[in-house]
Amino acid sequence: MLLLALDTATPAVTVALHDGDAVIASSSQVDARRHGELLLPAVDRVLAEAGLRLDAVTGIVVGIGPGPYTGLRVGLMTADTFGLALGVPVHGVCTLDGLAYAADIEKGPFVVATDARRKEVYWATYADSRTRLTGPAVDRPADIAERVAGLPAVGAGALLYPGAFPQAHEPEHVSAAALASLAAERLAAGEPLPEPRPLYLRRPDAQVPKNYKVVTPK
Amino acid sequence: MADEPLVLGIETSCDETGVGIVRGSTLLADAVASSVDEHARFGGVVPEVASRAHLEAVVPTIERALKDAGVSARDLDGIAVTAGPGLAGALLVGVSAAKAYAYALGKPLYGVNHLASHICVDQLEHGALPEPTMALLVSGGHSSLLLSTDITSDVRPMGATIDDAAGEAFDKIARVLDLGFPGGPVIDRYAREGDPEAIAFPRGLTGPRDPAYDFSFSGLKTAVARWIEARRAAGEDVPVRDVAASFQEAVVDVLTRKAVRACKDQGVDHLMIGGGVAANSRLRVLAQERCEAAGIRLRVPRPKLCTDNGAMVAALGAEMVARNRAASSWDLSADSSLPVTDPHVPGAPHSPTHSHPHTHDHVHEISKENLYS
Ligand SMILES: [Zn+2]
């Protein structure tokens, strides 16, 4: 087994290779505005570090969010297209599950929250690092403060709003290494992984830019 | 012919997901998936809706294009993609797909300019583009007059609209006349039975001191709307056919007059017309008449190649391969305001303006070693 994992649902552009036993190479860069530029060079670097070519990969693992849409789509589109070109399966993993796995908490419950912008967080609760209890959902921190009161929390969304998440700590962003390890575990156990389709959790903004191509209702 | 480059092109700059495949100047496939119906209820293209639709449509559209062309992805000589201009989020979906596809197949990547692609597509219809060529691009998104001596390296803006695109004016007037959407074809149809000289609508930017090659359709649009409203306010019937014909005449008169003048001024003997408005029958007739009178050869591709599509991107990509232009690098970005003067976005490893020259060099070397040898 050789899994290539990637995630662009948080400010991190993160890529890892997993051979079924362990992560053999990885790269993470934090730059929320340059997912599109950074992802392919990162894949190239990680493969070179492992001394492997992309066609050795037997499966793709991709973070399906939730996350800011523009960046999220970079990872999903890249994974889909790799799958098409290589003829290998593409597996989705909820990005928050990857963060929960990396948090390495034996006994919860705890919260994972990432920055959803517009003063909201994407969040989910976990019984332990491998078991999601609720979510993912998108909410204002103040609106969920009561529900997460007293729980430890990880992720940039938690670190950003200490009022709602006083017990926030690292990891801040997801790592593809965690995503790959979680996926490898699930695949080895014969557990299904989600389809590689985006978790947007919000409807698109229906804003039409001025002076753009106009279409009127039929 | 088998020596000519086999190139797949991906276009996602607006609401059409286009994938085309060409061999040199021969069209092999032109697959398009449109999200236009999803935008109709909003009254315009919603960028986020377009981006979501592209993500779902790209892979199936690539598969369909390969099947239509009857070629294997392994045999491609390059992957081309619209790098800009267009909607940022929508462009990024196509660029991400093209990069992943090129990388996985071990093929060079060419990020190309949407406007230059609109010009280059005519090679699929009428053979090699004459050099120089004057191009009039008119659609719902653009109205430009461009001069190209080499479509892979030299495209010069001669003029552009200072307000609305020509296609927008057609849609807006169709709406005022309650003719529905899209405006272009329906106005064209009514205009055929109307008198183009019935109403003297203004010709924007045609005064002696106005810029010779720029366009303006905003004033015309307002004049037509006011004329219709005045009739309605007076309780009179609106002569839809005459209004359509007179409005259309005002648009195509200015477009063709300025295009022919630009050809004459610059000593160019070929004019190509592209973009969705190039399907307008009166534009084609008047352009033909005026070009003939001026000794200019007119080239207009079939309508399906004039609207946004992947074949035009593949056509320009094939020309990049044929002329040995530098491929793009793996950190190619989508540029929503890519200047028309950049027909493509070559990798520039030694450019001091490059943000990570060292990383970039490194990546390029690795890529060659891994994939191209
Ligand atoms: Zn266009």
UniProtKB/TrEMBL annotation, chain A:
The keyword Transferase applies. This is tRNA (Adenosine(37)-N6)-threonylcarbamoyltransferase complex dimerization subunit type 1 TsaB. Gene3D superfamilies: 3.30.420.40. The keyword Transferase applies. Transmembrane segments: none annotated. It comes from the Bacteria. Keywords: Transferase. One of its GO terms (biological process) is tRNA threonylcarbamoyladenosine modification. GO terms for cellular component: cytosol. Residues 32-145 form the Gcp-like domain. CDD domains: ASKHA_NBD_TsaB (cd24032). GO terms for molecular function: transferase activity. It comes from Streptomyces shenzhenensis. NCBIfam families: T6A_YeaZ (TIGR03725).
UniProtKB/TrEMBL annotation, chain B:
Keywords: Acyltransferase, Cytoplasm, Iron, Metal-binding, Transferase, tRNA processing. Residues 358-373 have a biased composition (Basic and acidic residues). Its EC number is 2.3.1.234. Its cofactor is Fe(2+). One of its GO terms (cellular component) is cytoplasm. Substrate binds at residues 137-141, 171, 184, 188, 280. Signal peptide: none annotated. It is an enzyme of class 2 (transferase). The keyword Iron applies. Fe cation binds at residues 114, 118, 308. Binds 1 Fe(2+) ion per subunit. Residues 27-314 form the Gcp-like domain. NCBIfam families: gcp_kae1, T6A_TsaD_YgjD. Required for the formation of a threonylcarbamoyl group on adenosine at position 37 (t(6)A37) in tRNAs that read codons beginning with adenine. Is involved in the transfer of the threonylcarbamoyl moiety of threonylcarbamoyl-AMP (TC-AMP) to the N6 group of A37, together with TsaE and TsaB. TsaD likely plays a direct catalytic role in this reaction. This is tRNA N6-adenosine threonylcarbamoyltransferase. It comes from Streptomyces shenzhenensis. The gene is tsaD.
